[in-house]
Amino acid sequence: MRRQPQRDNDVLSRAIKLVRRHRGMTARAVAKAMHMPLRTYERFEAGGSRLNIDYIHRFAAATRSDPHAVIMAVAIGSPELAWRSADNKLVTALTIGGKRLNGLLGDGIAKLDGRTVILAVCAMYDDLLAENERQEMAARWLEKGVTELTLARPRPGR
Q1: For the chain (length 158 residues), average pLDDT per consecutive 10?
Q2: How far is Cα 147 from Cα 134, in angstroms, rounded to an integer?
Q3: Which of 24, 34, 103, 121 is most buried, by CB atoms within 10 Å?
Q4: What is the C-alpha end-to-end distance of the chain, expressed in Å?
Q5: What is the distance between the alpha carbons of residues 46 and 66, in angstroms, rounded to a whole number?
Q6: How far, CA to CA in Å, does 79 sit from each of 9, 21, 75?
Q7: Do residues 65 and 36 lie in contact, with contact meaning Cβ atoms separated by under 8 Å?
Q8: CB 45 within 8 A of CB 20
Q9: CA 68 to chain CA mean position, Å
Q10: Three-state secondary-structure class, residue 155
Q11: Long-range Cβ pairs for the range 91-95 (8 Å, 24+)
């Protein structure tokens, strides 16, 4: 059975709700920070209006999140990307890199072959995956060490 494709507005709605909840904010607080009436914000969050880039950037400023991740979440059909990138600004960093490359290479971008671009992007993501594994390994090491120290500590006595 084929899965029905999601509508852009449904993905946007879910992404915005995930980020807002991740920040522990109410719809009223976000609407106020976006300088808009609550009903307008509620319609935006419910996906009741067309995709509005200005609203997305205002939302991201209000929630200190990644506007480019919200947009990419819609593009790839994964609302979770928006909250996963809210703190580290992953997609904004990618966008800044694209802007920088555009400024440095200009028309030279058109001369890059697809294979070169794909290999460079894959290498970047492989580096991020390896860094994630190193961070998880360090966290496991620390957790194990703390447990061992706790078990080795003498019991207080009186």
Answers
A1: 74 97 98 97 92 95 98 96 97 97 97 96 96 97 95 83
A2: 20
A3: 34
A4: 68
A5: 19
A6: 11, 13, 10
A7: no
A8: yes
A9: 8
A10: coil
A11: 91/66, 92/66, 92/67, 92/68, 94/68, 95/68
